[in-house]
Design a protein that fits this description.
The complex is a heterotrimer of chains A (about 160), B (about 400) and C (about 180). Chain B is mainly alpha-helical. Chain B has helices at about 5, 60-65, 75-80, 85-100, 105-135, 140-160, 180-205, 210-215, 220-225, 235, 245, 270-290, 310-315, 320-330, 370-375, 380-385, 390-400, 405, and strands at about 20-25, 40-45, 45-55, 170, 175, 340-345, 350-360, 365-370. In chain B, the strands form three sheets. Chain B has a three-stranded antiparallel β-sheet. Mean pLDDT of chain B is about 85; it is low at about 1-15. A four-stranded parallel β-sheet of chain C has the order 1-2-3-4. Chain C is built from seven helices and four strands, in the order αβαβαβαβααα. The chains are: A alpha/beta (about 160), B mainly alpha (about 400), C alpha/beta (about 180). The interface between A and B is large, with 41 and 48 residues.
């Protein structure tokens, strides 16, 4: 649901961008080095003033994706009501992009969650640590190579019986 | 979690040791933290100098489950996200799946989904405001708020058998059509709820204690709301006049005439008033929906290969039989394009969206839920800085943070 | 008996008297984590009133309660908190595990949800359901009251000798109600 004018200007400003449309929604793919510049352009020139979500998809060995992890930024223009989905791909080992926190405050916790569950670093994030999992948790569970039932972390606790405690 | 490690992070306003500041742990087991959240407060006497939220005490791996359960099984899990308005989550999930698959449900199904979503909105606002009342000391208000909820539970029970955690929607339709008794019960509730809301307003709207505790507390300006990705009643109370039901209408919301409730102040009292007003608007939508409820099928036709056809068709027509087998055989199921799509709905808490990555099979490759509570709770330290300890509960209640949606 | 007792003298076993007092004033400690917490609140609200059974006071302080109702799923980050709260409660104390998630992990067989809190703390009563209806929770409280009456001792000796307690069995329903009150 994005007005064509903004997308055309965006493609002119960033020639490496590939745009497509599906069910009325516009998606754009940028290379990960150009991600921060693209987000900044979209916020300042494109008018996308709200960051709706930051998420990640692990394409481990599937669908011929150009990288293992696909980072997805969902943007919204509150004045016009336009939406845009911006994607970029990062790879193992050490997947890293620049943090979007200087642009939108709302990206703070969203990026922390992506780090926690997927292991993608955000350079320049003020406080990148685990958010939904315990600090001692060793790995990043939403990756496709981590089993659903876990590796025994959930039952690694002392037992309290009647009589003591 | 050891307290020392938590304090060394960069969230705190002061990094040098300031001995006169007192650290207090708030939660995760506390009557006023709506279930499990934890905040570490740094206090200067009664003033909050900084607050550091610590979440994850209810992280159950919902998104990992989304990769394992199929589209009709996962709706049971979406119930358990924002568990005070489960029907709204069901509607949001199946709207996302149907958008991805390119299916449009029949009119009767759309009207019924709007009806249950608005009932869920009323239930959610009743709990949220009830909890704000309970935390600021108004226990009677809390009981007044839970009473209409029992009537709404009766309606849900008549519709699908469960009081809450309903899992009422299915891909391409609903679990069961609504019976005439259920519609009659909805009419009765529409008649009784305005008086209940009036009673609640009479208790707190002009109550000096409540107004003093919530006016001017936790102010969120319009620019901050947009920068911090606030949506729903919290953004509308700060002046962002966006409501997905009007701006990007889904289901059949364009058929209904209702107002979008906004305020300008952005404090706790404004959010409380916006929620009370939204309950009345939901009642208006419900009235219109129940009066104009179209007749017809509630599931999409068999050609779409999305829902199980009824048994009469299965046993008597060949298409029915084939569709039933296609849906039930293990290597068949829905045909979902290998694409990614984000669909947002106006849940009672804000913009609840699902980013679905389909991979051709009947399970999602990735089912990401965009949780409004998570994003709103991130604003909490900013809202509480400079206020007193007693304002912590008022602000926390007005943000309507549901721990299950927060942690997923 | 040759002795005529006046009307204001009652003979009973001290254990039974103390158990009767305890069972009729169980103060719940609601450890509400998720959706079952809302049904717990609904059980305490006006329609299904848990206060009728003596469980009026939902104190949130473990030092003032004797019945911990674990309502909702317990994840690995929360379990040490649960254990600490259990240890902070005074004897005699009982635990009701409300809902499928607290009893066995429920729908969530994932890397972070504990598959049943009875792996780590002692549980006296399990309430199935997702979420259990308020009537089921009230039945569990009634059954627990029956268990306290049958097995309770004044000085908490039944907790030291678990082999003398009844073995675990399913909710019995109406027969237990016939047992109560004495």
């Amino acid at each position: 649901m994005a007005v064509q004018g903004t997308i055309e200007q965006f493609s002119t400003a960033f020639p490496q961008v590939e745009t497509s449309e599906f069910r009325g929604q516009t998606r754009a793919v940028v290379p990960s080095e150009a991600l921060f510049a693209a987000l900044e352009w979209l916020r300042d020139e494109g008018g996308f003033d709200m960051l709706v979500d930051v998420t990640c998809v692990d394409y481990l060995a599937s669908r011929g994706a150009p990288g293992r992890f696909g980072l997805v930024y969902l943007l919204l223009d509150t004045q016009e009501g336009e939406r845009l989905t911006l994607r970029t791909y990062v790879n193992d080992p050490e997947p890293e992009v620049r943090s979007a926190v200087p642009l939108w405050e709302g990206a703070n916790w969203l990026e922390r969650e992506v780090w926690d569950l997927f292991g993608i670093r955000f350079a320049g994030h003020p406080d990148l640590r685990r958010i939904v999992l315990p600090d001692e948790f060793a790995t990043h569970p939403l990756r496709k190579d981590y089993p659903m039932q876990g590796r025994g972390e959930r039952h690694n606790f002392p037992v309290i019986t009647r009589g003591e405690g | 979690m050891p307290l020392e490690r938590v304090l060394q992070s960069g969230d705190l306003a002061h990094d040098e040791a300031q001995e006169y500041l007192w650290t207090m742990n708030f939660g995760p087991q506390h009557p006023a933290t709506h279930t499990t959240l934890r905040i570490v407060l740094k206090l200067d006497g009664e003033r909050v100098v900084d607050a550091m939220p610590d979440i994850g005490y209810l992280h159950s791996g919902f998104e990992k489950l989304g990769e394992e359960l199929d589209y009709n099984q996962y709706v049971t899990v979406t119930d358990r996200m924002n568990y005070i308005s489960p029907m709204a989550n069901n509607v949001a999930w199946h709207l996302a799946v149907e958008n991805l698959m390119g299916i449009e449900v029949p009119r009767r199904c759309q009207y019924l989904r709007v009806i249950v979503a608005e009932l869920a909105r009323i239930a959610d606002h009743l709990v949220c405001n009830g909890a704000v009342g309970l935390d600021t000391g108004a226990f009677t208000y809390f009981l007044y708020a839970f009473n209409p909820r029992e009537k709404i539970y009766d309606i849900f029970e008549a519709l699908c058998g469960a009081r809450f955690t309903n899992s009422y929607t299915r891909v391409g339709g609903l679990m069961r059509d609504a019976t005439d008794e259920a519609i009659a019960m909805i009419r009765v509730v529409i008649g009784e709820l305005p008086k209940a809301i009036d009673d609640m307003e009479r208790l707190l709207n002009r109550n000096k204690i409540f107004v003093d505790r919530t006016k001017g507390v936790g102010v969120l300006t319009k620019e901050e709301a947009i920068s911090r990705s606030a949506t729903g009643p919290i953004a509308r109370a700060s002046g962002v006049t966006r409501d997905l039901r009007k701006d990007e209408p889904y289901l059949c919301y364009e058929d209904f005439d209702f107002n979008v409730c906004c305020a300008r102040d952005g404090d706790c009292f404004a959010r409380y008033l916006v929620r009370m007003a939204e309950m009345r608007e939901s009642l208006r939508i419900l009235e219109q929906a129940v009066e104009n409820l179209p007749q017809g099928p509630v599931d999409v036709g068999m050609g779409e290969r999305a829902t199980l056809p009824n048994k009469g068709m299965v046993y008597s027509t060949i298409e029915g039989l084939i569709t039933h087998f296609e849906m039930v055989m293990t290597n068949r199921g829905f045909e979902v394009p290998v694409e990614e799509l984000y669909t947002a709905t106006e849940a009672p808490n804000g913009e609840l969206g699902f980013y679905l990555v389909g991979d051709g099979s009947n399970r999602a490759y990735r089912a990401r839920c965009r949780p409004p509570s998570f994003i709103h709770f991130a604003m909490f330290p900013h809202l509480i800085r400079g206020h007193t300890l007693s304002d912590v509960v008022a602000v926390l209640g007005s943000l309507n943070v549901i721990a299950a949606e927060l942690d997923r | 008996m040759a002795i005529e007792l006046p009307d204001n003298v009652v003979i009973t076993q001290l254990d039974e008297l103390v158990s009767w007092c305890r069972k009729n004033s169980l103060w719940p400690m609601p450890f509400a984590t998720a959706c079952c917490g809302i049904e717990l609140m609904a059980t305490g609200a006006s329609r299904h009133d848990l206060a009728r059974f003596g469980a009026e006071v939902f104190r949130f302080s473990p030092r003032q309660c004797d019945l911990m109702i674990v309502a909702g799923r317990v994840v690995m980050k929360m379990l040490p908190v649960l254990q600490r709260i259990w240890q902070q409660m005074h004897e005699p104390k009982w635990c009701i595990s409300m809902g499928a998630c607290a009893s066995t992990g429920g729908v969530f067989d994932t890397y972070s949800v504990v598959q049943g809190i009875d792996r780590f703390i002692p549980v006296d009563m399990y309430v199935p359901g997702c979420p259990p209806r308020p009537e089921q929770l009230i039945q569990a409280v009634i059954d627990l009251q029956g268990k306290i009456q049958r097995e309770g001792t004044m000085f908490g000796g039944e907790f030291e000798r678990p082999q003398e307690q009844e073995p675990k069995r399913a909710l019995q329903g109406p027969e237990v109600v016939r047992d109560w009150p004495r």
